[in-house]
Amino acid sequence: MIKRGSGFYLKLVLIMISLMLLSGCQGTANLPQVSIKTVDHLQTNPQSLKSKDVLKVGISSVLSPRETLENYQPFADYLQKKIGRPVQLVQRQTYQEINNLVSNQEVDVAFICSGAYVVGRKDNLELLAVPEVNGKSTYQSYIIVNASSSIRQFTDLKGQVFGFTDPISFSGTIAPTYMVTQLKTTPKDFFSRVVYTYSHDNSIKAVLDNVVSAAGVDSLVYQYAINKDPSLASKLRIIGQSPEVGSPPVVVNQKINPNLKTALQEALLQMDSDPLGQQALKALIYDRFVLPNSNAYETVQTMVNAIPVLAQ
Q1: pLDDT tens by residue, 250-289
Q2: Nearest to 174 by CA among 242, 89, 99
Q3: Which domain holds residue 65?
Q4: Burial class for 179, CB neighbours closer than 10 Å (0-12, 13-18, 19+)
């Protein structure tokens, strides 16, 4: 009789497991591979958030993701110089995802939309600073149409296709939705269809290409687009606008380390007096950062309260 040691039985077990796995793979080899969500990882930049040595900066995609990263890289360079830590820019597809990163302290600081701030105040989001442009730290929602369109006023949009940006964007979704509620109806009943573009430059392009009849856009982004391409001024028309509200703020979690909070706030407030900071401000089309005024967001809160799905 041949004696077999424990090593023999171990090899036998491994062979049996391998055969079972091979069988399972062969059984599913011909099944279709289905993706429920298409994500361009080069654009959304989903990098690891685990390094404690890196200062993580969340950025909502007010512009399309690739252009946003390009515009914020000078800021990252400036912040690295001022804080003395490597800086990682973190993007996600939606504003809510950036809110969640701040709420869960997975990013140290974030640039978000005014609507996202108001919606996220209940989740420990705290104002740190706000940008100032042309002496103002406020902005508006513009309702824009193609200049060739026969649409002249907001009520003419009944039965038309409308472009929203992000579900909790003030200028791209909340303000135009509020305008619809003032007509005693809902977007679902007022528009024939709504399309989410997930960035303001995408909304502008959708209007130019007649993919949508109109869209709500950030007045600062609209001006940025006009400055970048002056010909757009004759191709687009503003048919409505919201009241001015507090500009898209920079926020932190209320539980942030007080020393880091102070360092971040000082870095922002001193940008306009630093050569590298001035370059970063120019890329962001801001004049400077100033201390925030929470009362500037109460109009947004009023609009949110009037929209049942957001007021919950």
Answers
A1: 999 999 999 999 999 999 999 999 999 999 999 998 999 9
A2: 242
A3: 42-134+247-294
A4: buried
